Please model this.
Amino acid sequence: MSEPSEKKSPLPTPWLLTWGGYILAMLGAFLFASKGIWIKLAYNYQVDASALMALRLSVATPFFIVFGVITFLRGKAKGTHDLPPIDRNPGLYLRTLGVGILGYWVASYTDFESLTTLSPQFERLILFTYPLFVILFGALFFKQPMRLKAVWAFAISYIGLGLVFLTDLHAQGSAVISGVLWCTVSSVAFALYLLLAKPLIRRMGPSLFTSWAMSGAALATGIHFLIVHRLSDIHMTPPLLTLVIGLAIGATVLPSYLTNFALSRISSQANAIISFINPIFTLVLSGLILGQHISLADIAGTLLVLTGVGLYVWIDQRATRQEAALSKG
Model:
């Protein structure tokens, strides 16, 4: 008498995988939106931007490195990795360290500094316009096409930023200006990071690239911290430790992987559209957790920024489809 065969569980349907991707993308957007909230709360415990950056990366970096190494070893065992050893192509790994410093230290540190004077919702709106710099730098330095129609979309976004800026300037004074400058530098650095990282990610794979890039950022952050601080300058308390863990895990590690998992189930366009809700999450969290006043100008400015960025995505995707159709024809 033969033993009964095991009943196999049905494979997930494409519909279920797609909706799972949407949920993961939404969770990632929500957690990314909470970053400014964690930072603002941590600033209440006598910690500055460089110290908070060091604490954040000291918790987050090991996760990225371990995950990257595991992924690399699995790929090597399966024969899917063809990367040369570091001694045969040191330039590849050094470039990755440098790009990581740009994206995970320069862009992050200037962002942290901006939040010493800016509200989280205004900071998020400024960062959300980074695609404009990607367009400009891509056309100037990377021989990418310049979509002039898309630039008009960003004019709408910057009208929204101007509205929020004038409101905050009236309420908080000239300190807002320095925050805007810091955040603009962060947006520029992040745009350059995206342009420089793309060929390296294609060559190394996202996991290994992230491990090396985060290592470069951790090194730069540690050197910066030791130049301006002593280890004894950090007075770690249980509330501050909780906020650092929340910032490092909840607003850095988890959303990064949630977004990657979402991208394995849905298109990058769908993920980009879902990310539009990011500033709205930040706006709501600022009011609920930080108790910040949400004015009509904040709401109107947010809607204008989202409209401009959304219009850009629509124009860009439409032009991309037209170019693809012409190339096939």
Summary: The first helix runs from residue 14 to 33. The radius of gyration is 22 Å. Residues 51 and 225 are 6 Å apart (CA to CA). Confidence is low (pLDDT under 50) at residues 1-9.
